Amino acid sequence: MPFKYLSVIVIIVIAISVPAAAHHSHNAYDQSAWTTYEGTVQEVHLINPHSWIYMEIRDADGETAVWALEAGATGGILNGGVQREDLQPGDAVRVRCHRLRDGSPGCLLGFVTPLHGDAARGHGVEMEWD
What we know:
This protein has helices at about 1-25, 75-80, and strands at about 35-45, 50-60, 65-70, 90-100, 105-115, 125-130. It is an alpha+beta fold and about 130 residues long. It has a five-stranded mixed barrel. It is globular. The chain starts with a helix and ends with a strand.
């Protein structure tokens, strides 16, 4: 009987771990290169399991689009030194991220540099958001 219970426990652990690993895959992003963008923050959502920044980016033709930037969990971002008030809607920022493979307007966020001019909120200081 003990072996039977152990087998059931092992099966349960495997069943739980496989979806968890799949959830954290970043295969949708091209992680072979960093891309840098500058734009204007539209929204900031410090939430779990992934935080998001939505920012307006102007392309080479002058057209604008709102991009969805996927960041890490709130705890990791704040523990890395970012303050909740560092980014506000309307702030100018520079980001380094990994583009979506399908070319749609989004990326896996790595670093954010506020360019809003307020030193108390980290102007010019690049911070990790992954």
